[in-house]
Amino acid sequence: MVKQCQASFDNLKAILISAPVLSAPNFDIPFKIAVDASDLTAGAVLLQEDDDGIDHPVCYFSRKFNNSQRNYSTIEKECLALILALQHFEIYVTSSSQPTVVYIDHNPLVFLNKIKGKNQRLLRWSLLLQEFNLEIHHIKGKDNLIADCLSRI
C-alpha cells in the first residue's frame, strides 16, 4: 500500500510540473500570484491566463517559516508570504510592463499601504512592496486552493 501511495504521489507531482498544466511564461500578458500563509509555512503560485481564459501555473513557491517568523501575527505571516513569493518570482514580475494581480485570502493586506500604526515591520514591508506594480485582491480562503495547498506541510 505504501508503494502505491508513493507512486501516486510521484505521478501527481509529474503532472503538476509538466505541460499542459504548467506553462511557459509569456511576458506580454499579465501575471497573477495566489499567496497564502499558514502557521508554519508560506505558499504561492505564479499564474497566467491562456487564450481560453484558464489560469495555468508558471512557477510554484513554498517555504517553512523560521522560529522567529512562526511568532508573527497573522497579518505579518500573510505579508511575509507575499514578500517571499515576490522575491522568488521577481524575475517574472519585474520583467512584465503590466501590473501583477495578487490574490490573497487575508483582507487587511489589500489595505496595507494605508495601514497606520506602530507595527514597524509592516510599515517597512509596505515600503518594500511599493517597488512592485501590484494589484492586490482579496479572495475567499476556499477559493485560494493552490496557494493553500502549498502553504501546508
Kindly describe this structure.
This protein has helices spanning 2-16, 74-88, 90-93, 120-129, 145-150; strands at 32-37, 41-49, 55-64, 100-104, 134-138. The protein has 153 residues and is of the alpha/beta class. It has a single domain (23-150), classed as Ribonuclease H-like superfamily/Ribonuclease H (Nucleotidyltransferase, domain 5, 2-Layer Sandwich), CATH 3.30.420. The mean pLDDT is 84.
Features:
153 residues, 5 helices, alpha/beta, 5 strands, Nucleotidyltransferase, domain 5, five-stranded mixed beta sheet
Q: In a nutshell, what does this entry contain?
A:
The chain has helices at residues 2-16, 74-88, 90-93, 120-129, 145-150, and strands at residues 32-37, 41-49, 55-64, 100-104, 134-138.
The fraction of residues in strands falls at 15-25%
Terminus-to-terminus distance: 22 Å
Number of domains: 1
Radius of gyration, Cα only, in angstroms? Answer: 16 Å
| Largest sheet descriptor | 5 strands, mixed
How many strands? 5
Instruction: Summarize model confidence as the mean pLDDT.
Output: 84
CATH homologous superfamily name?
Answer: Ribonuclease H-like superfamily/Ribonuclease H
- Overall SS class: alpha/beta
Oligomer: single chain
List low-pLDDT spans. Answer: none
Q: What is the topology, as strand order, of the major beta sheet?
A: 3-2-1-4-5
Helicity level? 25-40%
